Structures are given as C-alpha cells and as structure tokens.
C-alpha cells in the first residue's frame, strides 16, 4: 500500500465500498445464492460465478442477466424490484455489522481532515447511504455515490463538480469494474486483493492486501 505521504499528493481519494472499506463481498455472494436456490444447484453455481466475475456491477444488472440468460424467465420491472427488495433484506443488517478491511478506519481517520474522500460503489444509493450512516462513518466522506449511475460516470461527475485534475485522483477498488471505471474517467487506480485471493488486475496495477 502506498504510504500516506504519497496518498496526500492526490487532490481526492475515491474508495469502492464492498471489499475495500468493509469485508462484505461474501455476504452478497451468499445473498445471491439464497435468492436463486429454488432453481437448483446448477443455477446457483452459475449465479455465483457470474456475480464473482462481475464484482462492482449493479445487482439490478445482475438480476436481468440471471433472468434472461440463466433461468429464462420474463424480465419485468416488478420482478427486478422484487428481487432487489429481497436482496436488501438479506444483506443490509449483515453489511452494517461486517468487519472493516484491516487498517481502513485508521487510514480514514488520518486522511479525512486533510484530503477529500469519496465512496463510489455499485450498491444502490439509498442503501449505501443507510449503511454508511448506521456504521457511523459518514463524517469521513464528502460524498457517497451508488447505483444506478455507474462508476465511470460517477468519477467524471466528481472531477467536473470539484474541478479536480484527473491525474491527481486515486480510486481504490477490488474488482475489474472498479479498474475499468477508473480507466473510463482517466484517474489513477490501486487494487485491493485479499490475501490468498486471485489477482484479477493487469500486471502493471499496484495491489495491496489490506490497509496495514
């Protein structure tokens, strides 16, 4: 992980949420599996595989894929909303109580009065705000931005709104969706890869295991 002096050379730092601030990726994997378990083990396996290969993508996009490509059911807005509500019921309390990624609280505490910090997440905006507030970490972030807007446009919005230089913005994420969003907006990127996990990023990307 880059030392704090290097971090402070940026005009702002952007964080993904799941897997970067909170160890909540597995919670959401289990929630997707639970939603589709009635369709059998083979479907659940495909659902989990797609979820893990598309980390950071909005759950609603995943629901559409599951309905269209895996269980071959009609895609209606009512069905998507229903799945979203059931998913939220399964994950919100667990994410609120999930452990932090090691060292992140100390990093946030040391940085937030010195440099603007943002969350850019695939979690729905209202749900993200609720989780951040219930965890008591809202004070650290200038803005917390979630879906349905994708990460690239969110980052561009931050650049435009605050007049930041894209070369002095750092996005810290844990998925290829994060990496691609950073690339779309032209900002710098560091990848978080938990110890023992497979590194999904290109060789030139700096990675770290936790914030210690």
CATH superfamily of the largest domain: HAD superfamily/HAD-like
CATH architect. name of the largest domain? 3-Layer(aba) Sandwich
Order of helices and strands: HEHHHHHEHEHEHEE
Q: How would a textbook summarize the main sheet?
A: 6 strands, parallel
With helices defined by DSSP (H or I, 4 residues minimum), what is the helix count?
Answer: 9
What structural class is derived from the secondary structure elements? Answer: alpha/beta
Q: Please report the total strand number as a whole number.
A: 6
Number of domains: 2
Kindly describe this structure.
There is one protein chain. The protein is an alpha/beta fold and 212 residues long. It folds into 2 domains: 4-23 and 100-208, HAD superfamily/HAD-like (Rossmann fold); 25-97. 48% of the residues lie in helices and 14% in strands. It has 9 helices and 6 strands, in the order αβαααααβαβαβαββ. It has helices at 4-7, 25-35, 41-53, 59-70, 77-97, 104-111, 125-135, 151-162, 176-185, and strands spanning 12-15, 117-124, 143-147, 169-173, 188-192, 207-208. It has a 6-stranded parallel β-sheet. Strand 2, helix 7 and strand 3 form a beta-alpha-beta unit. Helix 2 (25-35) packs antiparallel against helix 3 and helix 4 crosses helix 5 (77-97). The protein is globular, with a radius of gyration of 17 Å.
Briefly summarize what is shown.
The protein has 212 residues and is of the alpha/beta class.
């Amino acid at each position: 992980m880059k030392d704090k002096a290097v971090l402070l050379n940026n005009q702002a730092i952007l964080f993904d949420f799941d897997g970067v601030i909170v160890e909540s990726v597995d919670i959401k994997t289990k929630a997707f599996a639970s939603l589709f378990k009635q369709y059998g083990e083979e479907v659940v396996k495909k659902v989990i595989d797609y979820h893990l290969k598309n980390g950071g993508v909005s759950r609603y996009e995943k629901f559409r894929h599951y309905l269209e490509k895996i269980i071959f059911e009609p895609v209606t807005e009512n069905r998507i909303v229903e799945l979203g509500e059931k998913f939220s019921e399964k994950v919100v309390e667990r994410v609120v109580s999930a452990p932090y990624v090691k060292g992140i609280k100390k990093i946030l505490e040391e940085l937030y009065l010195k440099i603007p910090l943002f969350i850019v997440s695939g979690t729905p905006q209202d749900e993200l705000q609720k989780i951040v507030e219930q965890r008591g970490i809202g004070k650290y972030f200038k803005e917390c931005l979630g879906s349905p807007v994708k990460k690239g446009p969110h980052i561009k919005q931050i650049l435009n709104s605050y007049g930041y230089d894209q070369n002095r913005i750092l996005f810290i994420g844990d998925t290829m969706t994060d990496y691609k969003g950073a690339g779309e907006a032209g900002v710098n990127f560091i990848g978080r890869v938990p110890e023992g996990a497979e590194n999904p990023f290109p060789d030139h990307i700096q990675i770290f295991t936790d914030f210690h």
